[in-house]
Amino acid sequence: MKLLIVEDHAAMRKTLRSVLNNGSLVRHEIYECDNGEEAVRLFAIHHPDYILMDIQLRVMDGFATSELILANDPAARIIFVSSHNAPSFRERAKNLNAYGFIAKDNLNELLHLLN
Question: Most buried by CB count within 10 Å: which residue of 7, 9, 24, 95?
Fold first, then answer.
C-alpha cells in the first residue's frame, strides 16, 4: 500500500510512520512532505492509495491542498489527521468527501480505516 503523509512537524511524521509500520505485518511504501504544494506534486508522481493530511500546513492548508488533489483525481482517498477535532473541521472534511478524519490523540483509529 502506498501512503503519502502530509504533516509539517517532523516528529508527527515519524509517529505516523511508526503507527503505520508497527500496526501492519507488511511494510508500506510511504512518502512524506511538510507542505501543501509538495503534497500536490508528490501525489501526481506517486498516486498513493491514501493521503494522511494535516490541516494546518505551511504554504497551503490541508483543505486547500485536498481541493487541488481532488480536482485532479476525485477518487483520491484523503484521511485528515489533525489536532483540531472541532465540528467545523469535521464538517469541512465531510464536504470534501474525505475518506476519514482522525484526531491526533487517537491515531489507532487510523489502522482501522486502512484495514
Answer: 7
Which residue range(s) make up the domain with 33? 2-114
For the whole model, what pTM was predicted? Answer: 0.94
When divided into structural domains, the chain yields a total of 1
pLDDT in tens, 3-55: 999 999 999 999 999 988 886 666 789 999 999 999 999 999 999 999 999 99
CATH number at residue 52: 3.40.50.2300
* DSSP letter (8 states) at residue 51: E
Helix (H) or strand (E) holding 103: strand 100-103
Give the whole-angstrom CA distance, residue 21 versus residue 77.
19
Closest-CA residue to 101 (of 23, 115, 87): 87
